[in-house]
Specification:
It is a single chain. By secondary structure, the protein is of the alpha+beta class. It is built from 3 helices and 5 strands. Strands 1, 2, 3, 4 and 5 form a 5-stranded antiparallel β-sheet that branches. A hairpin with a 4-residue loop joins strand 3 and strand 4.
Amino acid sequence: MAPIRAKIRLDFCGEEGRQSLLWGRTKPETAAESSRQRQAMALKSLPWQGVTLEEIETGQEVYTIPSVERGEKIAYAPVELTVKADSLEDLVPFILREEFRKIKILDPDEMVFSSLDIERTIFKMGREFRIEVNREGYLH
């Protein structure tokens, strides 16, 4: 099977920081930009098995939305990754991230998956989901 090229968008969150005596409150936009830069560096340095990071774009504008629950605004800083994956299952760690917003398959135009390909992908999604749920403390 040919590699899958995809563009993946992740939006990193920034919330208004606590007030300090010297610096005042951290703006959510500043927190989101800081989170984006930290995460971009981490994404560049992580060894992704079966995935090659071709490009990472961090130049998109930070945007804010109001948070009804908290009564303040939350900012998001988008990152677009262009990746080449050996298989569909190798994309699972990206799409299961909380920051995941969308994916666009660039190549190939059409794909045919065997039942084994789908089984592996579903298995990996289930495993990654359980790991995350256990990390959050929802399962015993």
